[in-house]
Specification:
By secondary structure, the chain is an alpha/beta fold. 42% of the residues lie in helices and 14% in strands. Helix 12 (334-343) links the parallel strand 9 and strand 10. The protein binds nicotinamide-adenine-dinucleotide. Nicotinamide-adenine-dinucleotide binds at residues 6-12, 29-32, 35, 83-86, 99, 102-103, 106, 121-122, 151, 153, 155, 262-263.
Length: 433
């Protein structure tokens, strides 16, 4: 099948490379000329485990290529994916659909023969109708159907998530499009992947409801962690104890500094706006949004509560990305933490294995270091902000020797309190005493 992927970001590039690996003929398109030039030169613009090899193999196999010009590609395609960003709209917190709308207008005059336009971007209910209207308005003769196919991949495990998903959700109203979608995802038959075929509006809502629920689970365990600290309970044991209940499940029950990333913040906000506009507000998600925002703001206070007045003190931050195995800095807790520490008078030294290039663009006044041991040099406190593997077994004796004062604030509960304290550290973590 001939496929165009419009938008070659985290989702577009991974989805395009995986679909090519399934045997489809895929062209990934982006308006970012630099990004496409790098991809054509064999360079991968994002960090995602396994992606470089996957892209290289499929380019070599002639199934994957790159372009900046939809006009060169779209007319020959059976399926055109829209995988552009849907960030938060500053004015009202809703999803900014301007990129999605622009793609609809761009591709409309290029469609030739029956074409399925597939919305992979996360979009509010009714966006499929809008895309259909825009294409129809621009090119009344076009023979096409608009489908919703939200993406659930997680950065850091994106290839596996795409190739072995828990399910594929497809919102489709047209029989020919249903067949095209079935053919597109036929390679997942071998793993008996459930294909959830529903109406377009239902599919759009499934994505937001999924992210809203997951965000709520994290906010819940974070508040339980606060309670644990007050009453002398252990949040990891509470999470284990409740997670064994199959109705609850063990995932997304890791207490921490508050969720970040490219999706949860914007999607929970957009869901609250959709629900309010529809006259069916979801107060649980509204509370989740507020709880998480307050939590992220409060984290720097946890550091100063341990160090005392931060003026002139040095804090080492280990981890800047919103989670490990990605270079994505979008809405990462470090973006709240570092400026707040600096505002309190601290010097901030930081290290992240993959995120420093992007972090340098977003964070002023941070001293970026070459590795974890370089970052803790002369520090009065070390804060573990992202649970990268390389921070899980630090040489604590060396860390202690390098620091000005052995104080660790472990916001990801990477270490066992008794182990760190036995090495002579003052140690604080989340929801454990
Ligand atoms: P991204 O910002 O990494 O990539 C979007 C790309 O689209 C950019 O490269 C941009 O240049 C390009 N683009 C914008 N307008 C264009 C146009 N008119 N023509 C061609 N290219 C254009 O975004 P992302 O993280 O890949 O997210 C894309 C969508 O997928 C969002 O709606 C997001 O919510 C959703 N999503 C993201 C993830 C994730 O983990 N990142 C997971 C599931 C769903």
């Amino acid at each position: 099948m001939r496929v165009a992927m419009i938008g070659t970001g985290y989702v577009g590039l991974v989805s395009g490379a995986c679909l090519a690996d399934f045997g489809h003929s895929v062209v990934c398109i982006d308006k970012d000329q630099d990004k496409i030039a790098r991809l054509k030169a064999g360079e991968i613009p994002i960090f995602e485990p396994g992606l470089e090899e996957l892209v290289q193999a499929n380019v070599k196999g002639g199934r994957l290529s790159f372009s900046t010009d939809p006009a060169e590609v779209v007319g020959d395609c059976d399926a055109v994916f829209i995988a552009v960003g849907t960030p938060t709209r500053e004015e009202d917190g809703h999803a900014d659909l301007s990129y999605v709308h622009a793609v609809a207008r761009e591709i409309a005059p290029l469609l030739s023969g029956f074409t399925v336009v597939i919305n992979k971007s996360t979009v509010p209910v009714g966006t499929g109708d809008e895309v259909e209207g825009l294409i129809r308005e621009t090119n009344p003769e076009a023979d096409f159907a608009v489908v919703s196919n939200p993406e659930f991949l997680r950065e850091g495990a994106a290839i596996d998530d795409f190739k072995r998903p828990d399910r594929v959700v497809i919102g489709v109203e047209d029989d020919r499009a249903r067949q095209v979608m079935a053919d597109l995802y036929r390679p997942l038959d071998v793993t008996a992947t459930p294909i959830v075929m529903v109406g377009r509006r239902t599919s759009e809502l499934i994505k937001y409801a999924a992210n809203g629920f997951l965000a709520m689970k994290i906010a819940f365990i974070n508040e339980v962690a606060d309670l644990c600290e007050k009453v002398g309970a252990d949040v990891q044991q509470v999470a284990y104890g409740i997670g064994l209940d199959k109705r609850i499940g063990p995932k997304f029950l890791m207490a921490g500094p508050g969720y970040g990333g490219s999706c949860f913040l914007k999607d929970t906000l957009a869901l609250t706006r959709t629900a309010q506009e529809a006259g069916a507000p979801i107060s649980l998600i509204e509370a989740t949004v507020e709880s998480n925002a307050n939590r992220k703001k409060s984290m720097a206070g946890r550091v100063s509560a341990m160090t005392g007045d931060l003026t002139g003190k040095t804090v080492a931050l280990l981890g800047l990305t919103f989670k490990p195995n990605t270079d994505d800095m979008r809405d990462a807790p470090s973006l709240d933490m570092a400026p707040a520490l600096i505002a309190m008078g601290a010097r901030v030294q930081a290290f992240d294995p993959e995120g420093m290039e992007e972090a340098a663009r977003l964070l002023d006044g941070v001293d970026f270091r070459d590795g974890p041991y370089d970052a803790v040099q002369g520090a009065d406190a070390v804060v573990i902000l992202t649970e990268w593997d390389q921070f899980r077994a630090l040489d604590l004796d060396r860390v202690k020797m390098l620091m000005n004062r052995p104080l660790m604030i472990d916001l990801r509960n990477v270490y066992r309190p008794e182990d760190v304290r036995a090495r002579g550290f003052t140690y604080a973590s989340i929801g454990r005493s």
